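Posting this for the archive.
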Amino acid sequence: QVQLVESGGGSVQAGGSLRLSCAAFGYTYSSYCMGWFRQAPGKEREGVAVIDSDGITSYADSVKGRFTISQDNAKNTLYLQMNSLKPEDTAMYYCAATYSIFARPLVPADFGYWGQGTQVTVSS
């Protein structure tokens, strides 16, 4: 039974930083891919950043150079460091995971395990 628990969301002014964490339970990091997704009100869920078991990362164009995904295998924890935050980054952020080697990076439908989400609000 895979369980993903996010934390670290909050409210920040534009230009500020936040770090999200995702603790994984019942999940083996030898599996293929974990990542962060977000969903703003009235919009579809979108991929933000993913990292696979080899440490290869992919980022959405909108966050490249500002966000960094990382993982601590010893702690079974995934992180998302978010810098230079913009109001358009406001959304519910979800941690997700997949065992499938065929999963397409940043495609929400290809990820089968999801956390409950943590809210990020960026004010101008």
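The mean pLDDT is 93. Residues 98 and 112 are 6 Å apart (CA to CA).
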